[in-house]
């Protein structure tokens, strides 16, 4: 049995907001009861449309914001109760790369300063830090002459490489990649994806890759989690999810994902209607029921439970109650 | 390829006419202040009882005042006072404004509400009246006048810094910083502050003329510098008594003031063109 | 044989920049027939949007030099005065952009904004409104009546893009230029919008010029494809030509760098190096510094057009393209 690095059990993150002039209080349930385990050395993809709460989940995982309910367990340590020493260790073991290459680095710092900063913060001497900065640039296949450049002088692909290099300098165990390639061109995207895979294999890293691009997910990840309006609707091995999606939402998402072969265009496909709802006016019952082709009256009134099908494939839908057992 | 932004900046400075003109004007004031002793023919308080209210001539190019002091020398020495006002005033306002703005913008919550309320409060009272009130409480004198003006003016810096901080703090590089363990103080000073420095420089040079004018006004009203300090505002105020017999007593200090303020003003405008992010499309 | 609607003949666009001139579009020629979906695909900065903007004269003023001809229905658009061009803009050629919020006026209801265009043709208010509702139904706007009375900020991104398409359709243009129409939208919404564009082409026989960086869209809807690299069209053909039988080394590599498989089936192909600076106007192939098949001639001589079939050609010194 593989060892769990990140464990979430019914994690919730709500934001309080005021609506209108009357200041009516309301909650945005950005993450609503997510249960998820990420094992050592695997790549988990997290897919969802905008507003599905996937970035909020990442921010909770990084402890940038406190969960409303439940907690993140990292390597067996409960982050809500971690001592400052444990917290410091956590900060070195989890790294992050965000989507926008341009804002990933401090525009006023040279590449060298940006890369060295995490090491200096964690008490590594300047000399060693500098050597490590050069090594890490080599790791992401970039020339060390860029060390004295400023972010605005570099291209998107280069900036993303540097962001990855910086994420690596503290020898993290886990990397959270929030849309790492969606701002890049196709040829650069391929470079970065390959680089990420090479690094993962040689350094034994664990990745959580957040993206809306199913083609990227299919290429890179071992397991896929699908989120819809704050809920995890399906989770399982990539092959299973891509070839045999169970949840009606995943099915629609797969069908909508751009085909990369024009011969497939005449294939009959199911076009999901409606817009991804908003987290503010959540539908009752199953959040997906207004767009679901199979919905029954029960979906409007009751929230479906997690159902475990075979080999780690879990789905949150009433359709499969007969096939699996409730978790 | 590896041109630092600073070098690029210097290059574009040469091409900006406003900036260069303003820079030269302000630089000349600075040179006057530093080498006042060498430039001025007399000391600022050296009286010549035999030459009272002499109109501008070869010996006294700007004439003399009612005590026979050389006006030109006094104006040269006065530039020291003005620069002192500019540096101290801007410094104080910046320290207040930036600290409070960063705290408000970064932490938000109750601290933000209280401090923003205070900033709003200072905007409700006309600046001059409030400054007069403050000086009345803490006593007259140039330093106190500068403090009073700072108490009136900090709010606009605080607001600016607060707004900028709030827009920068959600950027990816800040969140990445926190995620590898940066403390709030480091986030504010190492990440946020350097990114608002360009805006601050522009604002300072745009606000300086106002600060100089307000402090001068306090001196003019008699609650700022005290005689025999060669403060330009004070000199104008003293000269008013002799406006018909010696109009130069008001005109020349006034012109010196206009020159300095105008210099800072176009320097600010030039800097805004150079540093404003909207002009620098990448 | 279908009729030719838009024809570009050796179009050059140069931008004036600090260091001199930037050649954003170089020697681009193609034609779009009536009722055809023509995709221009390329990576950022390859000049695809510049082409669209130069057709409608929407480029920033006094900053560019355009050479070559743009024929629309056989007439040279360059000889049109600004006023004449205005009568074509929106009426004969419609354009939708990546971010529809920028194109809608926030203080009027969307229905009114669509009706406004219709009323220019001396149509009564009531009838214009009815047409708006019909158009909204055509673009599959849910709850058309209610949405016509909504303000832009009350609609989701997908609905706004529908409003833009409805607005364009109200004038029944012959050509719709869609510049990255779905880039800001979620995949499920993207699929809906593409479906609308396809149905509308079938119903109104509108030609569509689809500008995108996303090969998924191209595979999904395009009839013909022009692949651009650094301001030049490197290869052009039917969608099947390009996907099944790419010839130009760039297209070939690009096809292999699309993530269509899982990592267990092998790594993606990558293209090394980066796009050259387009300010140095030197002869030769612009892909030369990244091309795995580069020869000496590529650096000194402009490429030649190689015809594969009647519909398919590529620009390369290699007679057979990259193998």
From TrEMBL, chain A:
Keyword match Transport: yes
UniProt keyword terms in alphabetical order: ATP-binding, Nucleotide-binding, Transport
One function term, GO molecular function aspect: ATP binding
Pfam family, one: ABC_tran
Boundaries of every ABC transporter domain copy: 6-254
Family: Belongs to the ABC transporter superfamily.
Protein's name in the database: Oligopeptide/dipeptide ABC transporter ATP-binding protein
TrEMBL record, chain B:
Record localization: Cell membrane
Broad class of the protein's primary localization: membrane
Alphabetical list of InterPro entries matching this protein: BP-dependent_transpt_permease, MetI-like, MetI-like_sf, OppC_N
PROSITE patterns reported in the protein's UniProt record: ABC_TM1
SUPFAM superfamilies, sorted: MetI-like
Membrane topology: Multi-pass membrane protein
Entry keywords, A to Z: Cell membrane, Membrane, Transmembrane, Transmembrane helix, Transport
Domain annotation ABC transmembrane type-1: ranges: 79-268
Domain of life: Bacteria
Keyword Aminoacyl-tRNA synthetase: no
Residue stretches spanning the membrane: 20-36, 81-108, 128-155, 248-267
A Pfam family reported for this protein in Swiss-Prot or TrEMBL: BPD_transp_1
Record-stated family: Belongs to the binding-protein-dependent transport system permease family.
Stated name of the protein: Peptide/nickel transport system permease protein
Lineage, highest ranks first: Bacteria, Bacillati, Bacillota, Tissierellia, Sedimentibacter
UniProtKB/TrEMBL annotation, chain C:
Main localization, broad class: membrane
All residue ranges annotated as the ABC transporter domain in the record: 6-255
Membrane topology recorded in Swiss-Prot or TrEMBL: Peripheral membrane protein
Signal peptide region: none
InterPro entries listed in its UniProt record: AAA+_ATPase (IPR003593), ABC_Ni/Peptide_Import (IPR050388), ABC_transporter-like_ATP-bd (IPR003439), ABC_transporter-like_CS (IPR017871), Oligopep_ABC_C (IPR013563), P-loop_NTPase (IPR027417)
Subcellular location: Cell membrane
Alphabetical list of CDD domains matching this protein: ABC_NikE_OppD_transporters
PROSITE patterns: ABC_TRANSPORTER_1, ABC_TRANSPORTER_2
Keywords, comma-separated and alphabetical: ATP-binding, Cell inner membrane, Cell membrane, Membrane, Nucleotide-binding, Translocase, Transport
Transmembrane residue ranges: none
Molecular-function annotations in GO: ATP binding
SUPFAM superfamilies associated with the record: P-loop containing nucleoside triphosphate hydrolases
UniProt family annotation: Belongs to the ABC transporter superfamily.
Listed name of the protein: Oligopeptide/dipeptide ABC transporter ATP-binding protein
